[in-house]
Specification:
Layout (H helix, E strand, L loop, with lengths): L6 E6 L2 E6 L2 H13 L4 E4 L8 E5 L5 H11 L1 H8 L14
Antiparallel strand pairs: 1-2, 2-4, 3-4
């Protein structure tokens, strides 16, 4: 299982941006990064309701974020992403 199946790292105006395809996975990863002492901000993307974006504070590199994601592990990331995969239309978000 690849990390890229559920998440993507990119850059937004010089800051690391983590794009997640599932609300449950987004919430889990937000907790992971918060527990690691990172400050993040939810960025609401326009026109893509099934994407959730975490913007990291300046100075946090994509390599650092990727390293933490590898510690979580691709299998765990996939397992959490699958929690809502069967039948949810809102990515696990409360209506």
């Amino acid at each position: 299982m690849n990390l890229e199946d559920h998440i993507k790292l990119s850059d937004l105006k010089g800051q690391c941006l983590l794009v997640v395809t599932d609300w449950e996975l987004f919430d889990f990863l937000d907790d992971v990064f918060t527990d690691q002492g990172f400050s993040t901000q939810l960025v609401e993307p326009c026109g893509t309701p099934q994407q959730y974006q975490l913007l990291f504070e300046p100075g946090v590199s994509s390599a650092t974020v990727h390293s933490i994601l590898l510690q979580v592990g691709p299998d765990e990331i996939h397992r959490i992403a699958q929690i809502n995969a069967s039948g949810s239309t809102n990515g696990g978000r409360d209506a």
